[in-house]
Structures are given as C-alpha cells and as structure tokens.
Amino acid sequence: MVPYDKQVVTVVRQGNIGTDTDYEPPLRIGFGINDKTVDSPNATMGRSILQPGAGPNPTHYHAANDVVWYILYGQIKLWHAKSDAKDREEVILKGGDFVYVPAGAIHVISNASETEEASLIFCYVGVPNTQSAQTVWLSEDGTQPVSRQATA
Predict the structure, then answer these.
(1) CATH class of 20-137
(2) Where are the beta strands (DSSP E) in the chain?
(3) pLDDT class for 149, splitting at 50, 70, 90?
(4) What local confidence, expressed as pLDDT, does residue 152 receive?
(5) CA 22 vs CA 57, 83, 115, 148: distances in Å
(6) Global pTM value
(7) Dihedral, CA atoms, 61, 63, 64, 69, nearest 10 degrees?
(8) How is the chain split into domains, by residue range?
(9) Is residue 143 within 8 Å of residue 134, measured between CB atoms?
C-alpha cells in the first residue's frame, strides 16, 4: 500500500497535457500520467490520435514493461511479432477492443482508414515515463536495431 501521506489523488485535465508529435511520429500523443504530472507513478498513460491515412509509427518494442491499449474509435492496423521478428501477424483493431502487448513484443500501428481519425488510450505498466520503458527502435521489418532518441 502507498504510505498514508502519499495517498493523493491527482486529476490531469485534457487541456493540460499538450500534444507530443516527436516520440512516435506520426502519432499525436497526449501523455496524461507520468512522472511529470504525478508524484512517483507506477505507470505511464495517455492517448494517441492517428490522423486519417497516417502511416505507421516507428517499429519498436519495450524491454522493461508491458503495454495495454483501449481502442476508443476508428480502425487501427496493428502488426506484431516476437522480439526476434518471427511469427508476424496483422490485425485490424476497432473501437471497444482491449489489447495487451507483453514486454519484448514488436508492435507497429497505423490508421487503417484514409478518411477517418482513430484513437486509443495506452498504458505502459510499471514505469513512470517513456525513458524507463527501455524502448528498442528497429528497422521497419523489425530485424535490426536502429538509433533513435525518444523525446517524451
């Protein structure tokens, strides 16, 4: 249990989170819960908006945490594979879907529609910020690490 004096509920209003377009372009991300908005969180949470026709975000996996998503609306194309880029699969996610991505699983998303926006809520489980996620950026096919500096 969190110590009594640290049991403070924090509300982060949508208008206070801004939009990050550098962390996983072309996604527009609003980080609502992380160590910049909450004292010592055990999760990083936010929303991603995918513009109509938005191409894929950079190919990657998170070495230090699982990721969970709730698809708010639209259709999102997900491709995922094991960390060795084997067993690649594609699936179309729809509003109302929940998704669990274990640490190490490669994942890439894009908007499946050329005309409608899509959005999801994400949570990095057990880490206070994106740097703690130990994200490994990969070549588009997921077979080679690439150098990329995350900014969020």
Answers:
(1) mainly beta
(2) 28-33, 43-50, 60-62, 67-73, 75-81, 89-94, 98-101, 106-111, 118-125, 135-137
(3) low
(4) 45
(5) 10, 24, 23, 11
(6) 0.91
(7) 20
(8) 20-137
(9) no
